[in-house]
Structures are given as structure tokens and as C-alpha cells.
Amino acid sequence: MLRCPFLHPICPKFPSPTSQSSNFLNNFKMSLLSLVPVPAISLPKGSRNGGGSSSMRSQWRSRVSMSVSVGSREAVAGDELFKDYKASCAFFFPGQGAQTVGMGKEAQSVPAAAELFEKANDILGFNLLDVCRNGPKEKLDSTVISQPAIYVTSLAAVEVLRARDGGQDIINSVDVTCGLSLGEYTALAFSGAFSFEDGLKLVKLRGEAMQDAADAATSAMVSVIGLDSEKVQLLCDAANEEVDEKEKVQIANFLCPGNYAVSGGVKGVEAVEAKAKSFKARMTVRLAVAGAFHTRFMEPAVSRLEAALAATEIRKPRIPVISNVDAQPHSDPEMIKKILARQVTSPVQWELTVKTLMNKEVTKSYELGPGKVIAGIVKRINKSAVIENISA
User: How far is residue 200's CA from residue 154's CA, in Å, rounded to a whole number?
Assistant: First the structure.
């Protein structure tokens, strides 16, 4: 069964539908997970066919630009510390979907990493390492468990790296960081914006709030494979014309070329699946997740996050942390709180984030945490990118 849609990058060269084997589909499903979304982008009424006019494409690009600049429009004077940031070495942190039974084992040979799991037990009220190492898989895959598990294991990977020869030098050289959905909290903890303990408390509440929001509505997520983002938006528009307002869908995760996650009401998702072939999509894959993450369906979680964030001490990060919401770094603690509260209802701008860092001429990057999902995404976006995985 698919884990959460916030991480898996596998954006392979897809075989034609007639050549898809059951093995390929099964393996592909197990890889499509780390996906999760700035406000929903809608196109003006007009042509709804698979192609779309050049003017419509231009308008769509304009809407995207408007959406991802929302954060900068709200910026305050104290939020411009990283306005003209330089970047050469990046740390990437994975999101929900990277979890796998057995993770955390390597961390136990490094005292500082093992200590993080011990601290986590006191905060979470259960033995996190036992679940990470022994499962069962169904328990580890649940939203309320997987989010803390990935957060702790990813920061343990930092300690594993620190213990290696030359590891501290690598850590000192990192001048930008980011994380996919949940991974943004890990990146903020690494940057010193909040303590390990406070970050874990936030992540614990985030997982619980997202699960509760999902339980309160009937919603779903689906990956659309083989289309560019403009075509996927047109597909969403076409589906939305056939369903009620409460069932409408939107792009929830701009993951990488040819792989975008759509979230919304079940009927809207079903309409996307029914229309996908007419838009020349290679396939759609329904994601086995709790609900429509990174959409308005997560709105009930926002007030709980806002309250928790208001009570949390957040400091200016020591290095830029790129936001999932607008692909920009923020330095003002109050702005960071606002961004994190909005993140659960906003599409993940991961493709733009990676492209932005590549344009900044990042020459070396590391993925810290379970799996190698981020590396796969980065390579899909830029084949020449140099990225190394550090697991725990």
C-alpha cells in the first residue's frame, strides 16, 4: 500500500501503457510517495482541451508567478536577511513517505544520534526507535507516527555525518537548506530556528491535526504521470467543471517534471482519473493517504498549528531555509510561523525550489534521512546535480 504522498520522486521514463507490466506498476506505486503544495491556481474559463492556447498558457504562468510570490508580498523589514542569499552546499530533508521499517539502526552506533531517539520517547510517550526498527509497517506508515519518525531519523543522520571524518567540515559548509513538506520542519531545526524538542512537539501536533482533518472529510490524492504542470492544471479545471464546490481538486504537489499530485474531494479525484487519458497522461496512481493534504481540506489543522506555533520560540535561522509555500527563504520568526501554518493548505513548490537552488549554482548537496527519494527528484530535475545520501 502506498505511503503518504509527500516524498517519492520516482519520475522515470515511463513505458507506454501497453507495455506496463504488473511488476512495474507495483514497484512504481511503492515509489510514488513524497508528494505534497501556494494557494490553488485556477485558470480563466475558456478552452478545456488537452492542448490549450498559447495565451492561456501565458496566463497560467502568470498565475503561478503570482502564487509563489505571496510570501514576498507579505514580507516585513525583518524578513529580508536572506534576500540576496548565496548558495553552494545544500542539505535536503525528506518528507512523509520516506519512512521504512528498519530505519534508525545506524544511528544507534553514534551516541549523539541515539540520544535524539531517547529524547523523542519522552516527548512522544512511546518507543519511537522500536517502531522505526521493527514496525509494523502499517503503524509506521500512519501520519501521526511517520512524521515524528522521519523528523527524528533525519536529524539523527546529521549526527551520523558529524561523527564521520570530515563530517563536521561538511556541516559547516552548508549555506542553504530545505525539506519536502514535513522536511521543512527538519530543515528549520537544523538551521537553529527552534530546538530539536520544540520541533518534535510541533511535528507531533502537525501529524495529529492533519490526520484529524482528513478524518473529518472524504477526500483523496492521485498522482498524474506524464504531463507537464500546465496540462495537469487544465485536467483539474476540466474535472472541476463536473463536480460540486466541495469536491473540487487542485495540484497539491509540484514534485518534478511529469509527476504532479492532485488533491481534493473523492468525486473530483475520480473525475481526474476518468479524464486523464484524454489529456494524454500516461497513467494515474491513487495514493493511499489519509486525505487531501496541502489543500483547503486541511483547513481544520491550521488553527491548531497557529496556536502551537504562537507558543513556540522561533529564532532567526542561521542559514536560509527555503519555504515550500513560495520557494523563498524567510528570516523573521513571525513570518516563519505564518508560513508554517499556511503550509498544510498550500501546494508544495518543490520543483521550483530545486530549480532555484540549481540556478544559485549549488555545487554539492546532501539528502539526510531515510531513503533516497530527494536524490531521485533532484536528478530528475537536473541530471548533472551532485547529491549524496546520508542515512541513519
Answer: 12
